[in-house]
Fold this protein.
Amino acid sequence: MLLTVENLKVKYGNIQALQGISFNVDKGEIVTLIGANGAGKTTTLHSICRLPPPEAPKVVEGDIKFKGESILSTEPHTLVSVHNIALVPEGRHIFGNLTVKENLTLATYARKDTEGIKRQLKHVFELFPRLKERENQRSESLSGGEQQMLAVGRALMTGCDFLLLDEPSMGLSPLLKYELFRTLKRLNQEGMTILLIEQNASLALHLAHRGYVLDTGEMAAEGTSEELINDPEVKRAYLGG
Amino acid sequence: MSLLEIKSMTHRFGGLKAVSELNISIEPGRVEGLIGHNGAGKTTVFNLVSGFYTPTEGNIIVDGQDTGGLKPHQVTALGVARTFQNIRLWKDMTVLDNIRISQHHRLGYSFFDAVMRTKRYMKRESEITAEAYKLLEELSLVDFANEYPKNLPYGTQRKVEIARALSVKPKLLLLDEPAAGLNSSDVVTLINLVKWISDNFPVTIWMIEHHMDVVMELCSHIVCIDFGETIAEGTPEEIRNNPAVISAYLGDDNI
Amino acid sequence: MESLVQNILNALQWGSFYALIALGYTLVYGVLTLINFAHGDVFMVGAYIAFFVSTFLLTTLGLPGWGVLILAIPLTMFFTSLVGVTLERVAYRPLRRKGAHRLYVVITALMAGLILEHANLAILGASRKAFPSLIEEQVYNIGGVVFTNLKLGVIFTAAAVFVLLNFIVTKTKIGMAMRAISYDKFAVPLMGIPIDQIIVFTFILGSSMAGLAGLLFAMSYPVLEPYMGALIGWKAFIAAVVGGIGDIRGAFIGGFLLGAVEIMVVAVFPSTYRDLIAFSVLLIILAVRPTGLFGVARHTKI
Amino acid sequence: MKRYNVQIILAVALAILAYLAQEEIIGKYALSVLMFMGINVILSTSLNLVNGYMGEFSCGHAGFMAVGAYVSSVLGVMLFAKDKVFGPALLDPSLSIWVFPLIVIIGGIAAALAGLLVAIPSFKTRGDYLAIITIAANYIVISVVENIDTIGGARGFMGMKSVVKAMGKTIDMPWMPIWVFIFTILSVWIIRRFISSTFGKGVPAINQDEIAAEIMSVNTNKMKMVAFMLSSGLAGVAGALFAYILGYVNPGSFTILKSTEVLVMVYLGGMGSLSGSVLSAILFTLLLEALRPLQIIKWVVVPFLLILLMQFRPEGIMGNRELPDFFPRLKRFYAFKD
Amino acid sequence: KIGFNIPMTGDIPKVGESSKLSAEMLKEDINGAGGLEVGGKKYMLEFIYEDNEAKAESAVTTALKLIEKDEVLAMIGPNSSKQAVPAGQVADDNETVMISPWSTNPDTTLDRPWVFRAAFLDPFQGPVAVDFAAKRFSAKTAAVLYDLSNDYSKGLAEIFKADFEGKFGEGSVKAFESHGTKDQDFSAQLTTIINAKPDFIFLPDNYNQVALIVKQANQLGWSGPIMGADAWGSSELMELCGDLCKGYYFSTHYAAKGAKGATKEFIDRYTAKYGEVPDDVAALTWDATRIVLKGIQQAGELTGKLSKDREAIRDGLSSITKFDGITGSMSFDEQGDPVKCAVVVKITDEGEFEFTESVCP
Ligand SMILES: Nc1ncnc2c1ncn2[C@@H]1O[C@H](COP(=O)(O)OP(=O)(O)OP(=O)(O)O)[C@@H](O)[C@H]1O
Ligand SMILES: Nc1ncnc2c1ncn2[C@@H]1O[C@H](COP(=O)(O)OP(=O)(O)OP(=O)(O)O)[C@@H](O)[C@H]1O
Ligand SMILES: [Mg+2]
Ligand SMILES: [Mg+2]
């Protein structure tokens, strides 16, 4: 198991956002986490990534293990630089005052392999040719979709082999959404492990190998994508039919 | 007569032409759609219509009046209200206050009334509050009247934002991606809400949306733009099958 | 004519100090959007540190003046940056951790400045200190324009510091990280960047520049007193903002601009109107460019 | 009946204060501390309107105070006192009681007009750019005063004591404490009513999302103007009272240092908390008086205490809540938020 | 029991410090000798020092606190006019004697029977400088650089200008430049001044600024004479200014070098005790305090009733016809201002302030 989450309980102040959830992700998998708004999906990712205060959710119980080691007390930046985990956060959070190129370069902060960085950059520009066109533009003036590409591209630049995505398709045109999902598939085929959060559950399940359904802080269902797609409960509540 | 008429409008950001020679007219009483690729200039069009930007060239005519030179709040007073792509509620004020403040253009009393608590002030304040409660009641948000938006679920925040826009008493309501970030069941609720508003309020709705189910379900007429220019317009059926729209926007859903 | 050239030279020297201090303001601001109001007082402490270091080296070790100067520069910069970093660790960081509104950090900075001033007053007494002269000052007179080697040294140093800082901020990854933090702190650790290290680095840079400025200032204006940093600090802040706060070029140009305006107003108008005219000019600049000379308005995508 | 509770309590308080002062049961020293406390209350609440509720960072409050102080001083001396420059008194001294509040208000109005100086740039600029515009405004005011010799320049201006004495001669009452009390209450009352009206709530709306405010029908320029002018106007009132308490004004009293003192009071109390501002102004004044024996160390201890306080309450004493949020029973007397 | 209303923090902490040191020395003297003898009885002195933070409002509350809470017999200070004028009002209203050692603003004592001062007024010192310069430097033209925000400096500069131009005609003051209190760079003003080529520069500034100004004037090539006023008279001047100030003149209250008798004794003892030569504030505080003490003695006896004693002290003070202070002998006019001589001193090559000339009104 690459990532194991065991009985995770998380609080924001007095609000209990996660009531003890467990799940795991294996190397080379695409796993998706679906659930209604406010179910605690983002909270789960933020707990894994140990975001700095004051945004940080507080883990009160349970454990998060990466490659069998607890990562609960590691510093957030070492997750990226040592463990090669990258997060594409909800709402993109690109650095609007930097150019596209600078955003991408910055993500290689902890990397020393100049050659690898070059190759990675080429790869990202291949995946998102639009970014190449806008290379020297201040990134805050990019359109929503372009920003989303930048956020994904930036995560890739860290040289990660485990990618966490939080609603990457939000605000994307259908065309781009499909393109993005195809890109994710391709990345996975190239060896990337992916944990995906997505509102569009059917799309997500079509892409993923396995899925988990989160409901108000508790794990409501889990299984392979097929099992979930065919589960009548899930169908009714999350697949809009 | 059209409620909104956009006449050969162009808008530039520095060298970038975000909207170019655009002509659109919106007929009263309908729900219309605006779709287009990311960065096509949709939000920019809404920003221009709501007076936040002034067009580099061309005119915008709302209900027979040219909005050139008007400030956004003046355009709002003409009857144009909107929601935002990213929710922009006043997060640290109650839902009720959010609703009341957006009646600022028709408060009908002055600073001195407020400080002296004149009769006029008392009367208008209670009217405003009553109207706000009525609106919240109608949208079944009344339970949240004294909640702070930041503590509400995302879907409810979207709804509050729509309620806030309605409290302006608009003739034209612009919705910028109302379904973004909503899950499937919330999307259904949203569709019903918009339908209900369109049936029960004297308001024309124009929405930007990337969720095709929503657009196809709600809109009777859709405009698709790319690079700030109209590439297609028509009924949902026409749009869905328009090859230009497919290649520039809808894409291929085979993953 | 000579007096014009002379005043340009005066303005360059005086502007150098504004620029050096403004750079420190802008660096910290550029990263934390924190107006570090204690910075003027860090500069004052820098001057005092320079004083103690120099007198120690002069009297106890008996080094010659130039030797003292060469040693005093790094030592002063080092000790002053300790002061800056301590402020960050003790006062600002805990507040940041608690998610306080940034203006509370600003007020804390203001308080920290007061503490520095009055602790100095309480410890060292009210007597002013005379800074020892370290280098033989040569007065040159070329065609009626009078200048000294010190004056040239100051101007040169300010320019060099600018080039260095500008390079760090615009070209290096650490500089990019600094700018990124100012825009969106949330996502910075996701890039594998240790946020606290970057912030500490920023404070080291900013306060060591203040230390350097303190040393040069003490050499040029050798009367030290606890309140010497307050006014020049405020004005340097103004210079930084007029240049476009958060922007290195802005702070540099803003500093020289403010120096030039102050000097030129005195040279041309009755000197009693100096503040009046100088600040009016700044208001006009901000009226024309509301985000300062180099500042870029932050886009709000709606 | 309930509606008038507070008014009655205040009137009684005023009467008691006047009586105690008249009979010299509270000494002049305590009284002067009380008066400066009142002035600090006006200053901090009025600055809170701009810095807390509107979320700007104005650092030049003392400049407006100076405008109010000088305008009302010159006016008062012109009308009621013999002066080297302004000649003999124009009005009968017995009128002074009636005219004095007018003089103070005119001082306030003059300061409000000066507030325009800041309000207009605020249409285009926000945050820290505006901060230095206010600092510059502060410097400009001081510089103007220093350059006008008829009002004494750096030497300062005096003669206001004779106006105060004229009031005391007409009816023997401790006039200054009474006026300070009345104006303090009045200021807090005006601000409270303003910000609790839907009209006034446009101000925090600008703070929380200016773009949304403008697009959702708030005339942001007008609101900013109202807020700035109200804030600076009240600072002017505070300045006027300050001048008459001291009987002497000097530009050195209104420098940026004074402004920062007010800033500290605002943030100490909590941004956007009116009762917080009142409370912190009172505490701050008392703290400074109480720590007098520490002499030089005082100005090390006071900031240190404040820094400590911020570590424990990083949102100020009250955050953005009001007193009744902590003591719900107070609501029985008065609804602070209606 | 005497109160001191002095600035220990704020703009001018040195002033407060000097006052305090000087007063402490005096107190030790008198208490060491068993106390102050008034009407046959000996009283131990108690001095209360209160910090007015160099702020006007603080000076007022300080004054009230001293007068009311601490029940002092008389108050010394505040020193600078910004505080002394409003505090004087308070003292006068509350019928307590106040004596400001250092304030030079006429308003401080004007029409205030309870308020006195120990320093001479600006109108006197200006002409002293004019006359001296005319004689010593054979000056026909002058330039002035003063502190705009400091009413002492400004007042003196203006009086000097009026007097000088009265003597040598319109325009004989070739440059009249100002700066701010906390300024550190004066190069532009000095450039203007030096380009005007005056016969000498009049510099009614505080000693700390003098040090900077003289240095910068030198760097800009000035080699002519400079003349200052009493605010130069600090031991720190030489420390801060070094060799550059040597040879210049200033008018002041007393000359340290060549001082005789009580003055010399004071200087020597102060220097021995605190390791620095007393500045003018110290000397004036010494005198001011002694004047008050003499006033108390003149009152005849202390009844223990505050208002009565205070009144007696005031009467005692007004009745002093001649007082031999270390800053010269003086008497008070009807406003409570002293009538005394000024001396002009030269800064010698040893860095001492040498008596050159005495000018009396
Ligand atoms: N910073 C915070 N402080 C307090 N409560 C929070 C915070 N962030 C999230 N919550 C609460 O925690 C719960 C889970 O939120 P979370 O953002 O994880 O949901 P989500 O599944 O990602 O929803 P969405 O689909 O809307 O993104 C919600 O009830 C939310 O209100
Ligand atoms: N303030 C601005 N300055 C410069 N360029 C801008 C600005 N705002 C938008 N643009 C550019 O204008 C184009 C249109 O942007 P707009 O936000 O209108 O797109 P959109 O159609 O709403 O896209 P999305 O669906 O992603 O929201 C984009 O290319 C964008 O980069
Ligand atoms: Mg989420
Ligand atoms: Mg958009």
About this structure: The CA atoms of residues 96 and 139 of chain A lie 5 Å apart. The interface with chain C takes residues 49, 51-55, 75-81, 86-87, 89, 93-98, 102, 105-111, 138, 140-141, 154-155, 158 of chain A (CB under 8 Å).
